[in-house]
Amino acid sequence: METTNTAPNIRFLTISRPKYKAYTLQNFRLLPQIQKLSEEQKFAMEVVGHVFPFKTNNYVVEELINWDSVPNDPVFTLTFPQREMLTPPHFEKMAAVLRNSSSKHKIKEMANKIRWELNPHPAGQMEHNIPTLKGETLEGVQHKYKETVLFFPSQGQTCHAYCTFCFRWPQFVGISELKFAMRETECLIQYIRKHPEISDILFTGGDPLIMKTKTLATYIKALLEADLPCLQTIRIGTKALAFWPYKFSTDPDADELLALFTRVTQAGKHLAIMSHFTHPRELGTEAVQEAIFRIQETGAQIRTQSPVIAHINDQPEVWTEMWKEQVKLGCVPYYMFVMRNTGAQHYFGVPLVRAWKIFREAYRKVSGLSRTVRGPSMSTIPGKVQVLGVKEVKGERVFVLRFLQGRNPDWVMRPFFAKYDKKALWLDELKPAFGEKKFFFE
Length: 442
Ligand SMILES: *Cc1c(COP(=O)(O)O)cnc(C)c1O
Ligand code: SF4
What we know:
Layout: E1 22-24, H1 32-35, H2 39-49, E2 55-57, H3 58-64, H4 74-79, H5 88-100, H6 104-116, E3 132-133, E4 136-137, E5 141-145, E6 148-151, H7 169-172, H8 185-194, E7 200-203, H9 213-225, E8 233-238, H10 240-243, H11 254-266, E9 270-276, H12 286-296, E10 301-308, H13 316-328, E11 332-338, H14 345-348, H15 352-364, E12 374-379, E13 383-393, E14 396-406, E15 416-419
Parallel strand pairs: 6-7, 7-8, 8-9, 9-10, 10-11, 11-12
Antiparallel strand pairs: 1-2, 3-4, 5-6, 12-13, 13-14, 14-15
Helix pairs in contact: 2-5, 5-6, 9-11, 13-15
The structure holds pyridoxal-5'-phosphate (PLP) and iron/sulfur cluster.
């Protein structure tokens, strides 16, 4: 099948073809909506934007943010730097350098100093999970859980906008030694052939759908043509539906992208679009609904996931609405994550007990069709750990936890217990319950 226009007709009348425009530290002050903010607010955004990556775009600004409720608007908080993302001492240090110096070198030096104090490499990704082939390490590939291999194509290591809370922030500011990135699919294919336990390949980034369709197609076609019978599923992890839905409708290579999707499903593979939605508003525009519809017409399935984030989506009603809306649009709720222990966790983090309460409150109010979602889940070094709840056992208040995925598959689905801690944000802050010295997986 040729990748010409085999995509479905656009359901809604699309009147315009929006052109992507990025807003960053360099030009955000030009936005009329930003000019209404005070000089102090703008300077604070600049201070934080020098430490953390900052990029948003015209779709987010014009269609998603409700400017009447700025600075408290959740989608504003999602892509614009917030003063409290830096602790007061870090903020003051960075602000002082910006006030007193125009030396690029000094600014960068301070930014990097602060960055290294923000636990830039939390989940041990640099030391673990990088596979080898014939003694050589496979850069751009991560293989942690038996069935699924992660693939970081080199041209997909950026996004249509940056989420303020993103755990991949070091990669976007260039302090990451792990420039996960791979150019050649040949090694990857050889690796998959050697590992018949791999049923899924997950394209990730950044956002792989930042790539031109032509580039993405070279990777995908190579996989299809390699004839890998054990490979059942191609997953694409993306936030393009939320941040740039025109990728699937009116962009010059949108039809070609949908034709590529069709090609995957017609080859008998499952195509799973793992779509990151953080707030229900991201599901409400005509542009996103049209994009979802067009993806579904290719036979691909959209699954949804997001972390629970303070100041953005830490209310049960937000999740109820999000899951209901997703199911209504034919998407499958998949994961609710916990904010990782990096970057601005002190501002965005939600304590585990609250994350569980939010999950439970929201889950209670949706039908079984939304209850495919699992969470709250922490992606830690040993595996994905789900908080099942809080319970009194033998007079001790404990967290009940379990692995949804484990570095060792034998750990999966075994309940275990940790001492209750109402402030704990992450697994490494938890202690085993009942006076035990270690968790069973340690
Ligand atoms: C989450 C994750 C996967 C995919 O796990 P599923 O539960 O199959 O969605 C694969 N690799 C890594 C490193 C992950 O964190
Ligand atoms: S789109 Fe995904 S990878 Fe990109 S900044 Fe947001 S969370 Fe991070």
